[in-house]
Amino acid sequence: xxxxxxxxxIVTGAAQGIGRAICERLLEEGAAGVVxxxxxGERLAGTSAAIxxxxxxxxxGDVSDSDTVRRSVEECxxxxxxxxxxxxxxxxxxxxxxxxxxxxxxxxxIAINVDGVFxxxxxxxxxxxxxxxxxxxxxxxxxxAWHVEETMAAYNTTKAAVHAIVRSAAIDLGRYGIRVxxxxxGVVDTPIAALVVHNPELAAKYLGTIPxxxxxxPRDIANAVLFLASxxxxxxxxxxxxxxxxxxxxxxxxxxxxxxxT
Length: 262
Known about the structure:
- This protein is α/β, with parallel strands linked by helices.
- It has helices spanning 17-28, 41-51, 66-80, 103-128, 153-173, 194-197, 200-207, 218-229, 255-261; strands spanning 8-12, 33-38, 56-60, 85-88, 136-140, 179-185, 240-243.
- The protein has 9 helices and 7 strands.
- The chain is globular.
């Protein structure tokens, strides 16, 4: 498969979960190279050792720092001579009741989930403008952008902001041929959702709200990112693709049992 043959990408949050799956899928699809950006150097080195591919280039840094994001773009240009996809995936989600949310907790989520995404979009677009083949940007939002959860006020807010960034960037950058889209995952089996997915009691409750009856897998989301970044999505921009197994469709349940009760 070669949908990305000759193309180069930056993937943030690349050391595990969805970010790692995006890197793997890009390499499988023939990408010329992937700059794997993550704040955890040890974990990133482990991922690199597992993938064992010279096209996988490690870049250790914090997306909340705009200069670091700019350097990641320069690194992609230096290594591969181009940047075709920025997959701005990095994010944190730390539950805390609203009344216990202190300034540090709030600002940490804003710095990584909002500032980090904005820096990735801006710096990638600056590199892409004027190219004969403009690139594309795919950000990771969440169904929490509108389907909010209790004790997740900071996370919910930041993911709504990502949706706004994507729509704003799409309308500003369309004149340059740069497409900007987002994926909005539901509950995916990654370290960030381990508290739910690997807790039998909580998992059962969550699965009861998902019509497809399973949690998402990292490759489910990675496949959607690749679609939005591919030529197959050439006329899609400013869109948020929901990947939640139907969780946000509406009220589900056993209707036959409900009818029997009434």
